[in-house]
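User: Sequence in, structure out. Go.
Assistant: Echoing your sequence, followed by the structure tokens.
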Amino acid sequence: MAVTVRDIARAAGVSVGTVSRALKGQPGLTEATRAQVCAVAAELGYDLGRLRTRPLKRVLFLLHRQHSALSTNLFYSQVLQGAEEACRDAGMALSFLSLGPTDPVLEQVELHAPDALLCAGFFEPELLQLLRDTGCPLVLIDMWAEGLPSVNPDHRHGGCQATRHLLEQGRRHIAYLSGSPAHYSVRQRGLGYRQALYDAGILADPQLEVLVADGEALDQDAARAMRALLALPTPPDAVFAFNDAAALAALRACQELGVAVPGQVAIVGFDNLAAAAQASPALSSVAVDKPGLGRAGVARLLHPDDGPQDVVMPVQLVVRGSSA
């Protein structure tokens, strides 16, 4: 049987990722480790040409467990759909795996025997390092990390666009319902919000930036945050929410309290999920090409040397009744 990278790793007493980096001449290793791995590979009779010529056949789409089941996560389910379409067009198979930091990550990934990885959304640095150590080509979608190729919507421009729209409607006390700042997308959307206020000569008010819990608690926590904002001595006259779920929860909280939307409070979300158009009033939102993100991620795997390492895709504000 042909010698595999895993055989070399076992014989050399190092990780599969270390073997892959050593044989490909990639940085991040001492020369002693590189020489040891290459010596073991030569001793076992490994064919170095396989690293250069093996085509991608199996792609594993990874999602953090905190993003919950795909059946309820309409954002990433559409990203997955776009990735699956691109893989099918390229003659590749796509499988799916959700992971958490306490899982046996390498063992679960190995069961899928992937040639490459697509990581969508947030991953802890430690978990991301384990995925790097597999030695598989890896592309991040809706996330960014130093030294890894990524595909993202223009989060910052979207946050700026949404806030500018609210300013153009005459709103001056604009709140930001923020998710966890550990998420790259949330940080960038917040930067866009503050940039628009700065450009308008308005100082950001820390009281108007409220952190909302992610996951299953999001609806309840966003509604609580909206009620707290409305109870301020000077309540906001507009809200930009980091995603549509938080915006819709804020909208429902306003309606329960008899606060007119958009008369007293205008609301804008982000992602433009189907529920945004179905709300009453319909929710203004920043539209993201979710299947396009998946397709672009696969394209980065197939053509790693084409274009910039970090791809930023355009977004567009869709104005509806919640803010007009």
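User: And one key feature?
Assistant: The first strand starts at residue 58 and ends at 64.
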